[in-house]
Write a structure and sequence with these properties.
Largest sheet: 7 strands, mixed
Strand order of the largest sheet: 1-7-6-5-2-3-4
Structural class: alpha/beta
Distance between the termini: 42 Å
Shape: globular
């Protein structure tokens, strides 16, 4: 029992495998994380541990997480599938799509299902069994019957960072990080060269200019986690007045144009996830909510001003192991509600954060 994680693993050997025999290096192992890009990035340490003990790692990811899966060191191949029990906008259950997934999973001998505390691994475990997967590991407080070979039972009253939760599952399955791997988030190298684009836009160039600007990323995947657009715009103006160059990023071009409002570089809709990683890596600080780019910043070592709504616990999902200033009322009435749309009138947990606070936090992280 691990006191911090509050974990009990119950394992049974795969069919025909002696319980006491040391496992040889596995051939092809599937790692599944079916939700958003940030969640997939947080799975990085677990993926690297699996890759250390497997000849090939196949990642099963949802459409919102595929690009992140392709950035993870240790992933050899990605299968994309939209899970009806995970996706925020779930599709109907379709027998043809399920049958196709089972077909595509053929040849997988072992699988790890990575989930958050509010997700069930058992629907996917059933499909993996139908695909012939012999050994399946997952966290499950519910009785799994014959669906799991390694059942990892976690004390969910203990808030553990998601990256550590998933790495603990990999260890329960018998995988360890390679020697010298410190367990931080990471992305594949080299990243795309965005120097010429930024140099032209900002009047800078070359590696010496790394850290010469602040990235502001106003978008999130859920309204409850979003700092108001007008506050972002105000913060950009105040950052510029404080002497910072500012780059605004995101998929939503209307939003990024509004936030940049002619005083910042607007890269809205102009970057792939890999290019965004490169932009953030060269920044001094990222200003963002609880969203994928915050975890991308952690993966490239850039400090974060985190506009964090407490609908989920920051202890689990705040940027992992990078300097971070957390803004937002972590004791607001929406706390731990897991709401996607704010359940409290006026969105007080974030709407009361000011541009001045953001500027102060940026100063703190850059000095």
């Amino acid at each position: 029992m691990n006191g911090r994680l509050g974990v009990l693993s119950r394992a049974r050997p795969a069919a025909g495998e002696p319980a006491t025999r040391r496992r040889p290096r596995r051939e092809r192992v599937l790692v599944a994380r079916l939700d958003d890009a940030g969640d997939v990035l947080l799975a990085g340490p677990a993926v690297r541990a699996v890759r250390e003990g497997a000849r090939e790692v196949v990642m099963l990811a949802g459409p919102n997480g595929r690009a992140a899966a392709e950035l993870l060191p240790g992933v050899d191949r990605v299968i994309e599938w939209r899970a009806p029990w995970i996706d925020g906008d779930p599709p109907p259950v379709d027998l043809g799509q399920v049958t196709e997934l089972v077909r595509r999973l053929g040849g997988i001998g072992e699988a790890l299902i990575l989930t958050s505390f509010h997700q069930s691994a058992l629907p996917l475990a059933l499909l993996l069994r139908l695909a012939g997967v012999r050994r399946i590991t997952a966290i499950s407080n519910d009785y799994p019957g014959s669906l799991l070979d390694v059942r990892h039972v976690v004390d969910e009253s203990v808030d553990v960072p998601e990256a550590e939760r998933m790495l603990a599952l990999a260890r329960a399955a018998g995988f360890e990080l390679p020697p010298g791997d410190d367990g931080r988030l990471a992305v594949r190298r080299p990243l795309p060269d965005i120097g010429p684009v930024l140099g032209k836009s900002l009047g800078v160039g070359g590696a010496a200019d790394a850290g010469a600007y602040v990235v502001v990323h106003p978008g999130t995947s859920a309204p409850a986690r979003t700092w108001p657009a007008d506050r972002h715009r105000q913060a950009v103006r105040e950052l510029v007045e404080d002497g910072h160059r500012v780059v605004v990023t995101g998929k939503e071009r209307e939003l990024t144009a509004f936030v940049a409002h002619g005083v910042a570089v607007d890269l809205g809709g102009r970057t792939t996830l890999g290019q965004l990683a490169a932009v953030i890596e060269r920044a001094g600080v990222l200003v963002a909510g609880n969203t994928g780019p915050a975890h991308l910043a952690a993966a490239v070592g850039t400090p974060v001003v985190s506009l964090f709504a407490p609908v989920v616990p920051a202890a689990r999902w705040a940027p992992y192991r990078v300097p971070t200033v957390l803004l937002g009322d972590q004791h607001a009435p929406c706390r731990l509600s897991r709401a996607r749309t704010c359940p409290v009138a006026g969105h007080p947990c974030l709407s009361e954060v000011t541009g001045e606070q953001v500027v102060k936090a940026v100063r703190e992280l850059t000095q």
